[in-house]
Specification:
The chain is mostly helical. It contains 6 helices and 2 strands. Strands 1-2 form a two-stranded antiparallel ribbon. The chain is globular, with a radius of gyration of 16 Å.
Amino acid sequence: MATTHAFAALTVVAPVAYAAPELAAPLAVGAIVGGIAPDFDLVLEHRRSFHFPVVGGPIAGLAVALAALAPSSVTVSLAAAAVAAWLHAASDALGDGPEMDPWTDPGDRAVYDHVRGRWLRPRRWIRYDGAPEDGVVAVALAVPPLLLFEGWIAGLVVGGVVVSLVYVLLRRRLVAWTPDWLE
């Protein structure tokens, strides 16, 4: 789920936000944007167009180095976004593939590795996005951000938890409600 990715990214930046509270908001914005941005390729070739599980690591490392050398709201936000986007792409291999209904039509493609020019296989630790175990992971990953961030960020996390739980309850029904042109 996109919310699971956003919560994972917020959890990753939480220690930095704790150490430098003046950078908490830019870190959170970067984490949230980077955590969900790879899924903007849903209208293209999902998990290939904007997912970079291998190339994203070095890019994230460079962004973190830049933020460490020249810390500012902009550099830490960009670093958080780069780390979050890479974490999103890399962790997609832990679930199932990008199919609409992987419980009936499981595929052998999780996320595309642009370096090797091939698809990484799904590990299926989480059976599909919106599976009950995805909901458990999302709620668990929401706890550190809820303990650290305040105001609108905490509100966004609470709203994200609600959205996550509703999605988990409706996920398998959504396939029947999906228009043919989205499949």
